[in-house]
Amino acid sequence: MIIKILIGLVIVLVILAIVIALQPADFRVTRSATMAAPPEGVFEQVDDLKKWEAWSPWAKMDATMKQTYEGPATGVGAISRWTGNAQVGEGSMTITESRPNELVGLKLQFLKPFVATNEVQFTFKPEGDQTLVTWDMTGTNNFMAKGFNLIMNMEKMCGDQFNQGLASMKSIVETRP
């Protein structure tokens, strides 16, 4: 009887491993918002990593999160490092590309609760007296992340956080003189 249970358990685990392995390796999360502000007003919220504290959804998840900054105050080479609770983890963000009022590219590295490296891009597109801001993140899922995605919808979870961040950024840029 125990042998049959063990064989059944092994079969279930093999099937689960196959299902996980067949999940997509690459992912993309994209959200956009239109803001009643010029591109330069929105661009500066992203290009200056210290300004993220006012609108980032993760800053709101951990009021005691420790952040440090390195390199230039803005633009390429600016780095933010953080250590926080289980929700925000530990990692760093480095601006890798900065085209004023058009684009900010970042390398996002997570150390905890999992190790991952993702590429993030913010684009700013003028639309009359407004700006369309698009927040885009791409990366590759390892085996563990593929398995996690079977339980949690990462696209929705990260997408919801992106929407919260864009809404906070919108309230900041639209209320500034």
UniProtKB/TrEMBL annotation:
UniProt cross-references to InterPro entries, sorted A to Z: Polyketide_cyclase/dehydratase (IPR019587), START-like_dom_sf (IPR023393)
Protein's UniProt name: Polyketide cyclase
Gene3D superfamilies from the UniProt entry: 3.30.530.20
Pfam families named among the record's database cross-references: Polyketide_cyc2
UniProt cross-references to CDD domains, sorted A to Z: SRPBCC_1
Highest taxon listed in the record's lineage: Bacteria
